[in-house]
Design a protein that fits this description.
The complex is a heterodimer of chains A (499) and B (153). With 499 residues, chain A is mainly alpha-helical. Chain A has 21 helices and two strands. Chain A has a domain of 349 residues. In chain A, strands 1-2 form a two-stranded antiparallel sheet. In chain A, helix 3 packs across helix 9, helix 3 runs parallel beside helix 14 and helix 6 packs parallel to helix 10. Chain B is mainly alpha-helical and 153 residues long. Chain B folds into two domains: 69 residues; 67 residues, no CATH class. In chain B, helix 1 runs antiparallel to helix 2 and helix 4 runs antiparallel to helix 5. The chains are: A mainly alpha (499), B mainly alpha (153).
Chain lengths: 499, 153
């Protein structure tokens, strides 16, 4: 069956009542959690994992993907109404979105964000359908050496492109990989670093670590900050005017392309495409002075690029098994919890699941558009929930999430421990995202490397005989080498660009 | 912050050295190829080298004030963070004995009061919904097992 046939059968499944309900619930809950200041899509998706414990694998993934998209839109609402980005990618939306809210055009800003997100997300999913299957077919020819090299390359791109301090990011990656070594050795079955503790035989749980590093840590940081005040936004009209739609059309088209292309590269992060799309619009505009003063094109470009990026970042996950951001790593963890390993074999072994999930991306985008435009007023009211209730509510989910998977209070302690560690690391400016990606990729990396070395009789020369593996290993060497030894003038140039 | 980064990097260096020692207790190679200690040994070694490099660069970097107060919880916001951690520790410690419902009832009520809520009826409503209500939803509808407690509550 070709991609279109698979997609149509995916739609047939995704449009069944129970999967529609999961997508609907995911969009609602995601938007709700995205509204909570300080909690981004990674934390939001991780916190809501326990809701999917009783669902079948397809339903769980559909709901978590919908939560992801919903959380992204929730972050947009806080950016526009209270000038607090719910996640890093929404920083750019704050620039013009909040200015529009101050001018009484909050409805237009949120409306164009919803429309742009819909267009960007939908077109990027179409591109995903076209790109993912051929890429997965190509990756099926990979052996363990190529997979090891691919994972090293993906991890180093994330480290190199996401981190300000390359040494700190590399160190965090190694620490994450070392934590992944705890438990029973995946090849020989020997216990490692367990110290006789029964709970460690299965390894450190991914869910408690993510809940700690993202959920608890971000909550502790949010508790420290003074709460932002919502402006009394005019939400009489939630649809942008015809002129505003016309002004934004080009920005939405260009934002889609920028977001999709950059979403295919692991480690770029959502802020880069949003920022690039925004700068591109400003450069192309005949009146660049309006940017920063409430230009609707600024909101449209950033939000479109953000959602196109979110959908495109599913390509490396589904086709290659490489998570390109912390949120995608959380989703990969959800795949693994449900007994599914993302990667090229997914399309061959689980075609029904993968195409239903892809079809649900389209459904989710439509649901978000239908829900968000008329419900803008309701979401705005929810922003007034006091921090005390929000904090207690999130912690209830964290406790259930950490406990629920293995019914172990040990995992709740793990979550709490990683929460404190995550809080301190963020304050000390250590990036935690590489550690999360390493934790999830660690066992697969080790297995691939050891299988490769078993084939070669322990010789690393096997990588020299495999040109694809060698080329993939060259990527991290070049990226890390460049970032470690780049001229200081480049840093200065980048800082002045951001300013 | 510089001192904080030095301490954190030092802790990571100690962790890597500990991992090297533990890896050496496992076979690095066996007759089939790399053993269980192989991957963690090399990782820990690379980690230790990175930590030393980071220690040196952080030590040399004298820019910016050494503001350690910014790292540790401080002020009113810091008090809120500490309250959250302490309450969560107490809840985790007693949950096995007291059970999810009573623990979260007390946890929710105590936390929202500590974070500034004063309307008793709102506190009561939230505490009950966040404990007995959540327990019912997760155990009955979502099939998630939660601690019953030795007292049977």
């Amino acid at each position: 069956m070709d991609a279109l046939g698979h997609l149509l059968s995916g739609f047939a499944a995704a449009l069944s009542v129970h999967y529609l309900l999961y997508a609907f619930a995911g969009c609602m809950l995601g938007t709700l959690i995205g509204l909570l200041p300080g909690l981004g899509p990674a934390a939001g998706t991780a916190i809501l994992i326990p809701l999917t414990f009783s669902l079948d694998a397809t339903g769980a993934i559909i709901m978590l993907c919908a939560i992801y998209y919903g959380a992204m839109y929730g972050g947009t609402i806080t950016s526009v109404l209270i000038n607090v980005p719910g996640e890093a990618a929404s920083v750019v939306t704050c620039i013009d979105g909040h200015q529009m809210a101050r001018q009484g055009r909050a409805g237009s800003a949120l409306g164009i964000a919803a429309i742009g997100s819909f267009v960007g997300g939908t077109l990027a999913t179409v591109a995903l359908v076209v790109v993912a299957m051929p890429l997965a077919s190509l990756a099926l020819k990979f052996g363990p050496a190529e997979f090891f090299a691919l994972m090293v390359a993906g991890l180093c791109l994330v480290v190199g492109l996401a981190g300000k301090n390359i040494l700190a990011a590399l160190l965090m990656t190694v620490i994450g990989l070392l934590f992944a070594m705890i438990g029973v050795d995946p090849v020989r079955g020997a216990p490692r670093f367990t110290f006789g503790v029964e709970e460690l035989f299965d390894g450190i749980g991914f869910v408690p670590v993510v809940m700690g590093l993202f959920g608890v840590a971000e909550l502790l940081l949010a508790a420290e900050k003074r709460q932002a005040r919502m402006i009394d936004a005019e939400l009489k009209s939630w649809l942008p005017s015809r002129q505003e739609c016309r002004d934004s059309a080009g920005a939405i088209g260009r934002g889609t392309v920028v977001g999709f292309v950059l979403g295919l590269i692991p480690g770029v992060g959502a802020i880069v495409p949003t920022f690039m799309a925004y700068v591109l619009e400003k450069r192309l505009s005949k009146t660049p002075e309006r940017f920063g003063q409430g230009a609707i094109e600024g909101v449209a470009s950033a939000e479109t690029a953000n959602n196109a990026y979110a959908n495109a970042s599913m390509v490396p996950l589904l086709a290659l098994g490489i998570p390109s951001s912390p949120t995608i790593a959380v989703l990969m963890g959800a795949f693994i919890i449900n007994g599914i390993t993302p990667g090229p074999f997914l399309f061959a072994e689980q075609p029904k699941l993968v195409w239903t999930v892809i079809a649900s991306f389209f459904v989710g985008n439509v649901l978000l558009l239908i829900l968000n435009l008329p419900l803008v007023g309701l979401w705005a009211k929810l922003l007034k929930i006091p921090f005390s209730f929000m904090c207690a509510g999130v912690l209830i989910f964290c406790v259930i999430g950490a406990y629920g998977l293995k019914q172990s209070l040990f995992d709740v302690w793990v979550m709490l421990g990683f929460g404190i560690i995550g809080y301190l690391l963020r304050k000390l400016d250590f990036p935690v995202a590489p550690a999360i990606l390493a934790l999830i990729l660690g066992p697969m990396m080790e297995k691939s490397l050891r299988t490769t070395l078993e084939i070669s009789g322990g010789s690393f020369a096997i990588f020299l005989d495999r040109p694809v593996a060698l080329a993939l290993l060259a990527v991290p060497v070049i990226v890390v080498g460049f970032l470690l030894f780049k001229p200081r003038s480049l840093d200065k140039l980048r800082e002045s660009d951001v300013d | 912050m510089r001192r904080g980064r030095l301490i954190a990097t030092g802790a990571m260096l100690a962790f890597c050295l500990f991992a090297i020692w533990q890896s050496l207790l496992l076979p690095l190679m066996d007759r089939l190829g790399p053993g269980p200690g192989f991957f963690p040994f090399w990782l820990a070694l690379i980690g230790a080298l990175l930590a030393v490099a980071l220690l040196i660069t952080t030590f040399r970097d004298a820019t910016g004030p050494d503001d350690d107060m910014a790292v540790l919880p401080h002020g009113e916001g810091g008090r809120r963070s500490i309250v959250i951690v302490v309450f969560l520790m107490i809840a985790t410690a007693i949950m096995d004995v007291v059970g999810f419902r009573l623990t979260m009832l007390a946890f929710n009520a105590a936390l929202v009061v500590a974070l500034g809520e004063r309307r008793w009826w709102v506190i009561a409503l939230f505490a009950i919904a966040g404990s007995y209500g959540v327990y019912h939803v997760f155990t009955t509808w979502l099939d998630v097992l939660l601690p019953e407690g030795r007292l049977g509550f």
